[in-house]
Design brief:
Length: 347
């Protein structure tokens, strides 16, 4: 498997993984001919942050690995982020949300690992701080969405603003979720085909894993509606109206994917109920057969027990046809028991 470009130990933007935990960094500069992206390492990023002014054109995107011991210290020393961002890193709440903190946006986004294997544990958190001139993203595990966005930037894509970068991140994540939904749908289709063909095997366990995955994704990825509503109604002054509309469109696209996940959960639930009903029916059939066999064997067991007692006075002991008489009696009782069992089955 190819090592993800934002994995620990991977060179940052081709400039080498430095001692600040910076995975990749870019400064996006606007010009009459369009936008361009220039790669940054930690030293150049610190210099850019030091010399920027309120009237500076363009913005920077810095992506950090929080497992690096120096990452948070570098951010505190150079980035000038709000205290709310650092509190969010430590508060332990991983629900997806985008909130306004004075003149900045603080976002918590959950995404799947780069080597996602359709397991509920393959989900990690991305913390984002968005200002008019600086976007900072930080994570502890390699994530698909950030790697896809980084690849797009290296291919020449240049967001027009910091909010446009956040919007691109959300749309990229929505596209990744569409792929997950398609993958889960394919697996469910396969299970359904095998169920219809009568091969149950261990499909209940597989469906349970998929259902837990969808529930966890929906619980972690669904944005908090109240926080998003407040942001869209009262955005910071530096946010352009076009950016607000794009962000609203990205959130709606995200909601569509989450509704698809809800539909898949209902489908899995119906399949699980169908499999459980089939298993119960098979168990009931097996129990009925066992009961019939037990009832049919009851007369001969009773008579064998009675005639097997070593006591005097056993009937037909001296009769020349005693054996056949006993066989006839056992056969008659067995036939009656079989007739009763057949009537109950027909009912």
């Amino acid at each position: 498997m190819t090592t993800p470009s934002n994995a620990p130990g991977t060179p940052a933007s081709g400039l080498g993984h430095d001692d600040a935990g910076l995975i990749c960094g870019y400064v996006f500069e606007r010009s009459a001919g369009g936008g361009s992206a220039r790669a940054l390492d930690a030293q150049r990023a610190a210099a850019w942050l030091t010399h920027r002014t309120a009237s500076s054109a363009g913005f920077a995107w810095l992506h950090f690995n929080l497992n690096h011991a120096q990452a948070e210290r570098w951010l505190v020393r150079h980035a000038g982020l709000s205290e709310a961002f650092y509190e969010t890193l430590k508060d332990g709440s991983h629900s997806t949300r985008i909130e306004r903190d004075d003149d900045a946006l603080i976002a918590v986004v959950n995404d799947v690992h780069f080597d996602f294997g359709f397991e509920p544990s393959d989900i990690a958190t991305l913390w984002i701080s968005v200002g008019p001139q600086l976007v900072v993203t930080a994570r502890t595990q390699p994530l698909r969405t950030v790697d896809a966005l980084r690849t797009a930037v290296r291919a020449g894509q240049s967001p027009r603003s910091s909010v446009a970068l956040l919007e691109a991140l959300m749309r990229t994540q929505a596209d990744g979720l569409v792929g997950i939904v398609r993958g889960v749908t394919t697996r469910i289709d396969r299970v359904e085909d095998e169920l219809l063909s009568g091969r149950l095997d261990h499909k209940r366990a597989r469906l349970g894993v998929l259902r837990r995955l969808l529930v966890r994704l929906q619980r972690l990825l669904a944005p908090e509606p109240a926080a998003l509503f407040r942001l869209l109604q009262h955005p910071p002054a530096w946010m352009a109206e076009d950016d607000v509309q794009e962000l609203r469109g990205a959130s709606e696209e995200f909601s569509v994917v989450l509704r698809d996940m809800q539909g898949l959960q209902e489908r899995i639930k119906l399949l699980q109920e169908e499999i459980a009903a089939s298993v119960n029916e098979d168990n009931g059939r097996s129990l009925f057969v066992l009961t019939v066999v037990t009832v049919l064997a009851l007369p001969i067991n009773i008579l064998a027990g009675l005639f097997g007692m070593n006591v005097g006075g056993i009937p037909l002991a001296q009769h020349p046809h005693g054996f056949w008489i006993v066989v006839a009696i056992v056969g008659a009782f067995t036939a009656v028991a079989a007739w009763v069992a057949r009537r109950r089955k027909d009912r």
